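Morning F.,

Quick status update on the modeling queue. The single chain you submitted on Monday has been processed. Sequence for confirmation:
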Amino acid sequence: MPTYRSVFSFRYGVFDNDGTLVDSIPFCEGIFADVVSRLGVPRAAAMKYYARTTGTPMREQYHGVLEAHGISFDDEDIESLRKAFDRQFLALDMKFFPRARRTLATLARRQKLFLSSAAPDAAVWKRIVGGGAAKHFTLAYGSTAIPKGPRHLEVFAEVIGMDLRDFAERAYFCGDSEADMRIGSLAGLYTIGVSGTVSDARLWRAGARRIIASVDELLADAR
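Structure tokens below.
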């Protein structure tokens, strides 16, 4: 149900990275399609599948797209796909969306920020360190060791000495995918969807409480 609440009324903020802070989704779709097409998935179908499942840990995406096309695979195949994607993705230089870093800097002066990404840890750190944004986050997680999901939120809560329920009452989750909205809403966080990667209708259905055009729109909340 649509509701408006200023982000400055919260003590904690959780952000997705790709498609929310960093303009990387078009690259992700292309690389994903490149690597799975080697096992027989049509490239156009792979890109459509990625767009539909963006925000999901990539190992799950590989399983899903291969199963959907009746392609047999084993753990070694999944690991090979992951490594092929990681190599290409890590090699790219990607930019933050305009004013995204300024938004993080402003918010970080008033609250603790966390980052939860479905991308590999190395890629997450390359983007936020290279972009000068790492200093704004109390903790940033990719999905190499812990897949993106409820466990990321539990760890964020643990870091500040809270259980997840108390953390959720004081935190928002800002992301561009249905997975972000589902993860945040199921845990009880206030969910803010960023338009562009998927339709607004999909974000609302997945549990968005508010939708913005870009993260810098959040700075208007302070006025």
